[in-house]
Amino acid sequence: MSIKELGELLMEVYQTLKHVKKAGERFSEEAERILANAYNFIIRGEQGLEKETQVSEQRITSETQAGIEHIERKRHDAEQLLASKIQDSTKRIEYTLQEGIKRFQQAANKTTRVEYEQGKAGSYNKVCFLYTCTHYLFNKQREPYLDSTMDK
Questions:
Q1: pTM of the full structure
Q2: For the residues of the chain, what is the DSSP string, one character each?
């Protein structure tokens, strides 16, 4: 191989290296652009996930608060209903007790009246009996001759 051929061959190698260097630079630039786009895509995705996470957290917090308020309203309504039922039951018990006391008093008054009437009737009968006995004895002492005529 001659020097000329060697020079031409070196020139070809040099030109090939230049083309390879340019191709490598383009490849490198394209790789940098692709990596930059991928990085930006990942950053945007990460930001989107953070935003979705925040929105989800806010929604969960809001729904939790709404649930707590709903439970509190239900508890309050149940307490009021229970208090109302207790008050109604208490009034019914008081009314029932008062009616029972009235009936008891009426029965006691009726029993007392009956006993009074029975006592009054018994007293009247006793008075009549005593009057009759006294009258008989009194008349007997005044008119002894009547007894002698009655015995005969």
A1: 0.45
A2: --HHHHHHHHHHHHHHHHHHHHHHHHHHHHHHHHHHHHHHHHHHHHHHHHHHHHHHHHHHHHHHHHHHHHHHHHHHHHHHHHHHHHHHHHHHHHHHHHHHHHHHHHHHHHHHHHHHHHHHHHHHHHHHHHHHHHHHHHHHHH-HHHHHHHH-
